[in-house]
Amino acid sequence: MNFSDLGIDADLVEALASKSIIEPFPIQEQTIPIALTGQDIIGQAKTGTGKTFGFGLPLIQRLGPDPEPGVKALIVVPTRELAVQVTEDMELATANRSTTVVSIYGGKAYEGQIEQIQAGAQIVVGTPGRLLDLASQRLISFKDIQVMVLDEADKMLDLGFLPDVEKLFAQTPATRHTMLFSATMPGPVVTLARRFMQKPIHIRASDPDESLTQANIEHFVYRAHQMDKDEVIGRILQSEGRGKTVIFTRTKRAAARLMEELNDRGFSAGSVHGDMSQDARERSMAGFKAGKKDVLIATDVAARGIDVDDVTHVINHTIPEDEKAYLHRVGRTGRAGKTGIAVTFVDWDDLHKWALINKALEMGIPEPVETYSSSPHLFEDLNIAPGTKGRLKPASAAPKDKSVSRPARSSGRGQKKPRTEGSAQQGTSSAPGRSRQRRRTTSS
Predict the structure, then answer these.
(1) What is the mean pLDDT of the segment spanning 220-249?
(2) How many domains are contained in the chain?
(3) CB distance 154 to 184 below 8 Å
(4) Could you tell me the pTM of the whole model?
(5) Is 140 inside a domain boundary?
(6) Distance between CA atoms of 262 and 229, rounded to whole angstroms?
(7) Which segment of 225-234, 280-289, 371-380 scores lowest on mean pLDDT?
(8) Fewest CB within 10 A of the end CB: N or C in the chain?
């Protein structure tokens, strides 16, 4: 099946094909035919399932090939990063039309956004706060909205934006076509849908009884020494088949430090965190998407804005706060049906936190193995060539080996089928009876 089979106009199909987007994903196959009829839709789908084109293509097609100037469609998103990503996708789809798309979000100057609105942009993608701000100043009007989309509604709830979203709904015509997308459907989101939508059809991208975690992501969890993490990461970045990689840190300072360290080691790393200006964050993201940088270091605030299909590895430099943050982080890989690898470092003081995440997600990895940059299981698990060091070039200053030359222990690890390690090997202890931990999650 292709997009033409779903009823999408030829010029839109051509625009997608120019970027090798040929076959629709399941959420698109389910959503597009219904959306083209003008029926309100609640789409339950995770990030990375292709939902943007699921609502975007019918929206663009409804406006026609040459729409009149003025805001006709509104897509509300929770974060600036997601606004940029959705805008890029919409601009790709409208490449063969006169339709104009504008991003409206805070952290960036008003002037450019206002100019695009006044120039007649028909599709607005924005965050609730900046949209209401411009509306209160009469710089944007929603009275002619034909289509309204609320994307990642559960994230809106988490960030406290639902009251603002209700105000936006109230400023649009009751006759609008409305589509709401959310990974989960908590009570307040259901209430919002009942209030502002007309007999919506509920579409799920996956079976509701399936596991929270994705089948195509393989998870490795290591108890790592703080002073050895940089060396371990340097070796992981040289693993076979490693493509674009996202590394999550707990703090902005840690993100900046790690970027400097990896660049010093010869890798091509950028970062995205809260201390950067919006322009700097956008430049960093653009460089990562274009392949100018193949490592992106980010804090959790940027997680939802990283929408890149070819991320092969996610590394949690520090453990996420809870299972939701874990899913958001590792969900940057294994997207669009591809496989991915997620590596998580657990500090000694955070073992209790991992226990809660492991239990909530039913990971089957109760005790992370103690791991060093010299541990044989690290090389085996992640397909790292023997003898690989964590540096591509000599240190810019006096060489300083940060690796910890302690032998790794085989205790506390397991694999898909647990086994007992027998005799002692070089670089490992001979302690028997503990299994090796390796986990590929069940289907999502």
Answers:
(1) 96
(2) 2
(3) yes
(4) 0.63
(5) yes
(6) 11
(7) 280-289
(8) N
